Amino acid sequence: MSIKPGLIGALLLTGVLSAGVCLPVGAQVAAAGASAPRPGAAAVPWNSLSPDQQRLLSRLSGQWEQLPPQRQQALASGSQRWLGMSQEQRAAARQRFNQFQQLPPQRRQLLRQRWEEFRALPPARQQAARENYRKFQSLPQQQRQQLRQRWQSASPQQRQNMVQRARERRAARAPKLR
Asked: pTM value?
């Protein structure tokens, strides 16, 4: 399964983006397997972290050196993002993480898989998907619900046709994204 751009693709990304874009550091630790390893990643020395990052990651201080370098980098950048958030953003991230944790394991795994597929897309396709998600979110609630119902009630063949039509419309508007 691959993430499809277009309005229908935005429906697929809704859960992924709301669950994983701004996870707090605790969520990143819990989802340690969710990030694709970056070959050749350099280790991040504990003393290179700011005092605020060290405080935030203090429960990992004793095992920091044993963490894989790519995990250290993910935690360091995640803690930096977390520290840059407002209280409202942090509260929203905590809420999304709690919602994610309450999902059945199969659903969480599917969302992780979709997130990794999204991250594997070229930057232009990621940007197109984000823009389509924003467009979807700006629609009236009733229209969003109608689109969700239409997608959910469609057969796999109908879904494929919907995605193909969305791709064709997108290609006609912005041929350079392909």
From this structure: 0.56
